[in-house]
Amino acid sequence: MYSRVTLLEIDTLRVDMDDAAALFREQVVPGLREEDGYEGAIALATPEGQGMIITFWETEEGARDASGFASEALERFVTLFKAPPGREVYEVAVADMAGVWV
């Protein structure tokens, strides 16, 4: 399993973090689900606007190839960010995600 990690900072003067999370859930996640090899996502946020989105992929190629979709999604919401988000791809070395998903 591989992950793509996106680090971002939301401009909280323009949008509330709860609203930003709702936009991700409602407008980005459905598109991710249509991507080949997509296995899930986690979005982390602080009240101050710092955020991290971790998406999980079956293969490294899937994680890298989905960057086209991710770029399109980020362009739609460019006005929400203080600076352009950064992205890296990692191999998942350990995962323990039993339990509750929000």
Report the span from N to C terminus: 21 Å
* Broad structural category: alpha+beta
Poorly predicted spans: none
Mean pLDDT: 87
Number of strands: 4
β content, as a range? Answer: 25-35%
Looking at this protein, list some descriptive labels.
single chain, 102 residues, 3 helices
Task: Write structural notes for this entry.
The protein is an alpha+beta fold and 102 residues long. Helices cover 32% and strands 29% of the residues. It contains 3 helices and 4 strands; from the N terminus they run βαββααβ. The chain has helices at 17-33, 60-65, 67-76, and strands spanning 2-9, 38-45, 50-57, 86-91. Strands 2-3-1-4 form a 4-stranded antiparallel beta sheet. Strand 2 and strand 3 form a beta hairpin. It is globular, with a radius of gyration of 13 Å. The protein starts with a strand and ends in an 11-residue tail after the last strand. The mean pLDDT is 87.
In short:
Helices cover 32% and strands 29% of the residues.
Please outline the helices and strands.
Blueprint: E1 2-9, H1 17-33, E2 38-45, E3 50-57, H2 60-65, H3 67-76, E4 86-91
Antiparallel strand pairs: 1-3, 1-4, 2-3
